[in-house]
Structures are given as structure tokens and as C-alpha cells.
């Protein structure tokens, strides 16, 4: 996802020190409106120092969002939130747990970054926020810009899921469709990858049995190795609201 601010800056940015290009070390102020490195055109990294300390004991009673950890985030004293974060962490095996970020306000982990971007944009007071996305990130940016009171345009490739484009529009963003398909970004650019050799078809004798727990359908409660056909009790994207979030499964604990 790329995010562009079209505005005349100002504003104070707590804790953030600079944008840094991971390829050539180019630096820019965090109030700069350049969305990429002017030397190599690659994306910025955020270079910031953690100015505070955080102990688990200090979290009790704090706001129920990502901002409860503000001492270790790039921005402090935020004004933008949709109650993101603190999704359940469900143990699957002794060493593997699943973080259920589909319970986030716009149903994906993209809300974690979008809340930071929208809060920064709110401080920069742009004329418009422009993002490109193949779906989830655009939905998150649209929702958080709406929360921050910022006009937003999201560019998506043609073929983007109608559910996602409907979500983006529902959050009040202007949607622009561009020709082409979404492709995974590869950075830094490098030589063409060598195609993989054809794999040997698996037979019953080469299969290994999986001992991980099978997923449980949140609609019917059955455990299944495949997709459950039970209709979802939740409204379609057209009628979805941020309050219609599924309940977390039992035996799970809220975490960051
Ligand atoms: Zn660069």
C-alpha cells in the first residue's frame, strides 16, 4: 500500500524522527509530503526511537485500542481510533497460536497500520489522502480517514472483490478502478526469479498427516477440514457496520 498526503503540512509529530530509505539511506522529515524516496523511488521506512517504557502492569484500565501502547508507538496522544487491536490469541499447538485479526473493525490486520496513517494524516491536515490497495488496506484506510474526518481516494485494480469495493465506498471514500491486476510487490527489485521445477504429484503414500487442530466454523460450531457451507449470520458487506463484529470464540484471550 502506498499512501500519499496532498497538503501543506505543519504539525508536531511525537517520537517520529524521520523517513529513511532502506536502500540508499536517504532521509526526509516526517512532515514531508514525498511518499517515496526521491533517489530510488522505493518506499520509506519510518525511523523513530521509542521514547517511553511500557510494563504489563501499567496496562490495566487503559483505553481499549491499539493506543494503550502509545509509549512504544510512533505517535502519542492520538485522537483517531475505531477500537482496533486486542483481538484474541488462540493457542493451536504448544508453539503456534492464531491471532484473530479478522475481528478488527474493518475485518483485517490492516487496521493496525491504518490507524497510525490516519492519525498522522490528521495532524498534517491534508486536502485529501490517496491510497492504492488491492482490497483490505484500502478498506482500512477509507474507514480510518472517515473517522479522522479526512477526504480519501482509494485506487484499486480492476477485478478487486466487489465486497471490498463496496466496503471502501461505504466508508465514504472515492473509489477509482485502474486497469490491471494486483501483483505482490517485490522490494527491492532484483533479477527475474527462476521458475520452480515441477513438483512431483503427491500420492497417498507421500502425504503426511497434519496433527494441527482443524478450524471450527464460527457459524455452525462444527470442526471441518474444508470451507463450511453454513450461511453467515452476519450481514453482507453492503449492510455491514463496524458494530457488527463477530464474537470471539471461547477459550481465547484478548491480546494486543
Ligand atoms: Zn532510496
From TrEMBL:
Q: Name one GO molecular function term.
A: L-serine ammonia-lyase activity
User: Which residue intervals make up region (Disordered)?
Assistant: 176-256
Which keywords accompany this UniProt record?
Lyase, Pyridoxal phosphate
Bias (Low complexity): 196-219, 235-245
GO annotation (BP), single: L-serine catabolic process
All copies of the Tryptophan synthase beta chain-like PALP domain together span: 81-180
Which stretches does UniProt call biased (Pro residues)?
Answer: 246-256
Q: What is this protein called?
A: Tryptophan synthase beta chain-like PALP domain-containing protein
Among its keywords, does the record have Nuclease?
A: no
Instruction: Write down the required cofactor(s).
Output: pyridoxal 5'-phosphate
Gene source species: Streptomyces fulvorobeus
KW Lyase (keyword) present: yes
Amino acid at each position: 500500500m502506498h499512501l500519499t498526503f496532498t497538503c501543506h503540512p505543519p504539525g508536531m509529530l511525537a517520537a517520529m524522527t524521520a523517513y529513511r530509505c532502506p536502500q540508499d539511506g536517504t532521509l526526509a522529515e516526517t512532515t514531508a509530503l514525498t511518499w517515496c524516496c526521491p533517489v530510488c523511488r522505493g518506499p520509506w521506512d519510518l525511523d523513530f526511537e521509542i521514547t517511553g517504557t511500557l510494563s504489563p502492569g501499567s496496562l490495566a484500565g487503559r483505553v481499549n485500542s491499539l493506543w494503550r501502547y502509545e509509549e512504544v508507538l510512533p505517535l502519542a496522544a492520538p485522537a483517531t481510533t475505531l477500537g482496533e487491536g486486542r483481538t484474541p490469541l488462540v493457542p493451536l499447538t504448544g508453539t503456534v497460536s492464531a491471532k484473530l485479526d479478522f475481528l478488527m473493525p474493518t475485518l483485517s490486520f490492516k487496521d493496525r497500520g491504518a490507524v497510525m496513517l490516519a492519525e498522522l494524516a490528521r495532524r498534517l491536515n491534508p486536502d485529501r489522502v490517496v491510497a492504492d490497495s488491492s482490497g483490505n488496506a484500502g478498506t482500512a484506510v477509507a474507514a480510518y480517514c472517515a473517522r479522522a474526518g479526512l477526504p480519501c481516494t482509494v485506487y484499486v485494480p480492476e477485478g478487486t472483490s466487489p465486497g471490498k469495493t463496496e466496503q471502501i465506498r461505504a466508508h465514504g471514500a472515492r473509489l477509482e478502478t485502474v486497469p490491471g491486476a494486483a501483483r505482490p510487490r517485490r522490494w527491492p527489485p532484483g533479477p527475474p526469479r527462476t521458475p520452480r521445477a515441477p513438483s512431483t504429484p503427491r500420492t497417498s503414500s507421500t502425504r503426511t498427516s497434519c496433527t494441527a487442530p482443524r478450524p471450527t466454523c464460527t457459524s455452525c460450531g462444527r470442526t471441518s477440514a474444508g470451507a463450511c457451507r453454513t450461511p453467515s449470520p452476519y450481514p453482507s458487506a453492503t449492510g455491514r457496520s463496524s458494530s457488527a463484529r463477530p464474537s470471539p470464540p471461547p477459550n481465547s484471550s484478548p491480546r494486543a
